[in-house]
Amino acid sequence: MLSYNTPISVNGQNAGPAGGMSARLPVKSLGNNGPVNGVSSNDAVSGTGRHVGKEQHIWLVTGPAGCGKSTVAKHLADALQWPYIEGDEYHPPANIAKMSAGIPLTDADRWDWLTQLREASIKALDQGNDGVVLTCSALKRKYRDVIRVAPYFTPNLHLHFIYLDASEEILLQRVLARQNHYMGANMVHSQFEALERPTPAETDVIPIDVSRPAEMVMADALNQVLRTIDAIQKDQSQ
Ligand SMILES: Nc1ncnc2c1ncn2[C@@H]1O[C@H](COP(=O)(O)OP(=O)(O)OP(=O)(O)O)[C@@H](O)[C@H]1O
Ligand SMILES: O=C(O)[C@H](O)[C@@H](O)[C@H](O)[C@H](O)CO
To answer: In which pathway does this enzyme or protein participate (predicted)?
Structure first.
């Protein structure tokens, strides 16, 4: 029986770094809904945006608290003019209360949140966007597998993860320096305890070293995204 504790094999989603970076945005018709927090459904077009032969992309920016998910995801969404979904905004109040109190979330606390994020990204694509960028810690392999269900039965939908990699010490410094956030520095260690770094077998994950300055990280992430999309476009046109 398939359970959330059983990693699902990933087939054919080769989103790893690829050659042929384009100087232009590689997507022919970029969606123009602009960055939004909390994508609402649009019944008039729901279901008509997908399955029409164009390539669509979900980019999930992942990593522990303070690694720079929001910073990178906003940059990508702005550059690509795609909707931006902030994963933290989808946590139920009970999860926020727990994290604010310094209590790490459990698997049970995260399942519905992950499913909602997956559904929200699909809604954004149903609205006709060519892609969507979302943030989600996705600390464990089985959490990433929940999102990996999104492109099932939809060959033109491509799911990619960016994993923002830095040491616990660096993230502790960044969270300590941050003001007015429910996730306190006391939570950073528990994030690393839960973390299962993506392995090379997870070929849909692009790791990015975020010990570097933010501008360098954002530029690297955008380059990797453009190269990956470009490679897929070329592959499809052959
Ligand atoms: N490469 C970087 N170098 C230095 N500081 C950074 C870098 N990236 C992000 N920051 C800063 O680190 C802090 C955390 O960044 P950000 O909020 O983007 O992380 P996050 O992963 O979304 O955090 P959380 O999941 O806890 O909401 C912010 O103050 C941000 O300005
Ligand atoms: O899975 C989790 O434990 C949570 O998603 C956290 O990672 C926070 O929501 C996020 O990082 C904000 O600090």
So the answer is: Carbohydrate acid metabolism; D-gluconate degradation
Please give the ipTM for the structure prediction. 0.97
Segment-wise mean pLDDT, segments of 10 residues, the chain, 238 residues: 40 34 32 36 39 83 97 98 98 96 97 98 95 98 97 94 98 92 92 97 98 98 97 86
Ligand 2 centroid to Cα of residue 190, in Å, is: 10
pTM: 0.83
- Give the start-end residues of each E strand in 50-203: 56-62, 84-85, 131-135, 157-165
Domain that holds residue 208: 56-237
Tell which residue, 170, 157, 183, 173, has the closest CA to residue 102.
Answer: 183
User: Looking at residue 116, which CATH number applies to its domain?
Assistant: 3.40.50.300
Does the beta carbon of 207 sit less than 6 angstroms from any atom of ligand 1? no
Establish whether residue 67 lines the binding site of ligand 1, counting it when its CB lies within 6 angstroms of any ligand atom. Answer: yes
Ligand 1 close to Cβ of residue 69 (< 6 A): yes
Q: Does residue 1 form part of some domain?
A: no
For residue 238, give the 3-state DSSP assignment: coil
